[in-house]
User: Fold this.
Amino acid sequence: MNSERIDPQGKKMGMWFFLFTEILFFGGMFLLYAIFRSLYSREFHAAAAEENLLLGTINTVILLTSSLTIALSISALRRGENLLSSRLQAATILMGLAFLVIKFFEWKAKIVLGIYPDSPVLLRLGKGEILFFGLYYMMTGLHGLHVLVGCAVIAFMVFFTRRETINRGNYARLENTGLYWHFVDIVWIYLYPLFYLIT
Amino acid sequence: MQESPSQNHVVATGTYTIVWLALLLLLAATIAIAKLQLLARFSVLGSLAIASVKAGLVLAFFMHLKYEGRFLKGMLALALAALTLLIGLTFVDVWYR
Assistant:
């Protein structure tokens, strides 16, 4: 019996268990959003008008497309096309970084207006607005952190793919990275309507 | 151990591209519905329903769930049920306090 027998199903299961904890982690914040929105619907309505729909939409397109490229990179690796796979991974990283750059300008535009947690401008507004922007910074901030971590992990995958440490027979690491990236995409799929559309 | 179907299933490029196009179409649809206020007071529900269809597509195809066994699907259902219960019960508390 080969002692280095690989169990890709087990590895994938481990990743899914981690994602379940992530569901409840973000779920807690979605719960807060839902409760406060039901209590301060008028204020949330008004505050959401501050959001930049164009930038939010561009970021959604970017993340959806990056999910496509990471999914394609796994298929490419499983066909034995390591070079193509690593290029698709690199494209995913670039889109992740583009997402963060746009997010940076979005935050900056608000901070310039004096809208940031505990700012004098914000504290003069009502409770509903304070809660809305608090949740906005908290949720998009933690989501952005996940995007950043995802980019770093994919960078390792590019390295592994180039060195053929991961290949068509041993791709669990890339597959798990993909699962994580898609999960982060799904979180954004819900953040987008809640902060940009419902005005 | 029995090999699950996902072990030897490589999803075709065409399938992924179609899913991606569907996601972009749904994005356009959700913007149109919100901006034109097509659903009036059900707009929140409508936006979340479209978001859930998008999430479902990502789960089923990009995350391969369609090709996974019952165990994993059941586990995910359990996690989502826990979240639904958590949100539902909290709302009951907030509304009827």
